[in-house]
Amino acid sequence: MNESKKTSIFLPHEERNGKPLDLFFLWCAANIGILGLVYGAIIIGFKLSFFQSVLVTIVGSLSFILVGIMSLAGKETGAITFILSRAPFGFKGNYIPSIIALVGHMGWLSINVCTGTLTTVSLFVTLGFKSNNILTAISLGIFIILVLISVLFSHETLIKIQTIFTYLFGSLTLIILAILIPKTNWNLLLNMKSGSWIGNFLPAVAFVMAGTGISWSSASADYSCHQNPKNSSRSVAASVTLGGAVPLIIIMGVGLLLSTAVPDLANSSNPTQVIRGALPRWIAIIYYLTAIGGLTPQCFLGLKSSKLLLDAINIHAKNASVVIFQALIIIILPSYILFIAQDFQGTLESFLGILGKLLAAWSSVFFIDYLFIRKKHGYSRKLLEDKNFNPINYRGVISWLIGFVVGLLFSNTFIFNGPFAVGIFKGNSLNVLLTFVVSGAVYYFIGVLSGKSTVYTESTGGELNE
User: What pLDDT is attached to residue 106?
Assistant: First the structure.
């Protein structure tokens, strides 16, 4: 590889030969994980009827259309998400959102490592071992080794592995669904009273959106940049959207049914372990093995996107240094969650509370920029490569900050209690959805309708759209 390819922020054309179906399997395997079962049980906790709960899984999961549309920017340019983010935020203005996204990636990676560790513990317990801290430490070590081995995978190998685990885990999920249907307390499920559409339903949808479409949006173009630019945009967007939404709807639906057979599912310190009580032993063993195998390449997505984010903010570290840094993170954070906090669900919800708003504000600005400016005018090399041409795009940065501050005022966190976090905004993720709407609206008015968009459409460096 010559020097120009080493330093280029764009993927060479010869490496852009992906097909839309590749993205379907990649995102499908990334979202069919066992954590979705817990999401289903948490939805029930919003005190909704069965119909409303099912509707939450569908509407919330379809937030993946955000990832689908944003991924088109990668297909059209061959650049990763946070290189493209330089357009609405500026070269230097993009640093803070990039660092926050890096923290988000490492946070989600840690959550997934915790899930993989707890699943490994559940497997050992099902095989007859006694659950204790020593077993948890051994399981953490085993899973971390599996994750770090996955670093050796190429993009093509990852696609193949994700495809295999999509079929395996998906088939097993359907088998478990068939087992759970006769065990489900349908009388209890169908007689649950309807909750308020504003006070219960909307916060539940916001919770699912914060943990799915909004969270994954920061990696939207990281894999679509491998797509052939001549591929149909509609096919690419549909493959990403359905690849993320379909498995989420199915796995969270199973979680809804499972919540009646396993009432403690959402509140358990190890939610994966209580699942085995509702399944035949042999099915539980196979399910856990497949879940562990599926979580490993899923964690690799977080590792790869973290490395790409470092490149986006011009931190070009050696691969060995990056792996050591990532290894330390996925040892320290999961160890804290598993051995000190011992509150898996609480940690997950606190994490979504802070990072969710920051990422929601960023993704909204990126989404509006692409949909109303970039889709028409395209990205230019000068805009993305010349740090002096567009150092700080104040319209994007201001929109991002306003959305985040408004969301913070309507939320209660461990560091700040917002004065407006009352009523329907009390104790839920509805503020994340509010943040998304506010940031996008502000950017639309001051960035799109202002008529002062020369910095956005400058193309003297050559258009990247094919």
Answer: 80
Alpha helices in 15-153 (DSSP H): 20-31, 35-44, 50-61, 65-77, 81-84, 86-89, 95-126, 133-149
- Count the Cβ atoms, other than its own, within 10 Å of residue 437: 15
Structure tokens at 373: 């400016």
Full domain range(s) for residue 266: 14-356
Residue 265 lies in a domain: yes
pLDDT at position 307:
73
412 pairs with which residues across the strands? 417
Cα–Cα distance, 161 to 26 (Å, whole number): 9
- Of 26, 88, 92, nearest in space to 372 by CA: 88
Token pair for 328:
């330390």
The verdict on residue 330 lying in a domain is yes
Query: Please, is 77 exposed, middle or buried when counting C-beta atoms within 10 Å of its C-beta (0-12, 13-18, 19+)?
Result: buried
Place of tokens 């990126």: 366
Q: Tokens 């915790």, residue? A: 114
Instruction: Give the whole-angstrom CA distance, residue 264 versus residue 273.
Output: 11
* CATH number of the domain residue 131 falls in: 1.10.4160.10
Task: Tell me which residue of 418, 440, 411, 401 sits closest to 96, measured CA to CA.
Answer: 401
Q: Is 327 exposed, middle or buried (0-12, 13-18, 19+ CB in 10 A)?
A: middle
Model pLDDT, residue 3: 37
CB 465 within 8 A of CB 73: no
Measure the CA–CA gap between 13 and 79, rounded to whole angstroms: 11
- Does 387 fall in a domain? no
As for how many domains the chain has, the answer is 1
Cβ–Cβ under 8 Å, residues 277 and 262: yes
CA distances 381 to 9, 89, 230, 305, Å, are 10, 15, 19, 22
Query: What is the pLDDT at residue 319?
Result: 67
Identify the three-state secondary structure at position 412: strand
Nearest to 256 by CA among 465, 49, 4: 49
- Which pLDDT score, from 0 to 100, does residue 344 have? 64
* Residues composing the chain: 466
Q: How far apart are CA 353 and CA 355, in angstroms?
A: 6
380 beta partners: 463
**Separation of alpha carbons 291 and 343, rounded Å:** 21
- Within-domain flag for 386: no
Question: What span, in angstroms and rounded, lies between the C-alpha atoms of 76 and 70?
Answer: 11
74 in Cβ contact with 223 (< 8 Å)? yes
The conformation of residue 340, written as its DSSP 8-state character, comes to I
Residues lower than pLDDT 50 in the chain: 1-6, 453-463, 465-466
Report pLDDT for 460: 40
Cα torsion 406, 370, 68, 463: sign? negative
**Residue 286: other Cβ atoms inside 10 A:** 16
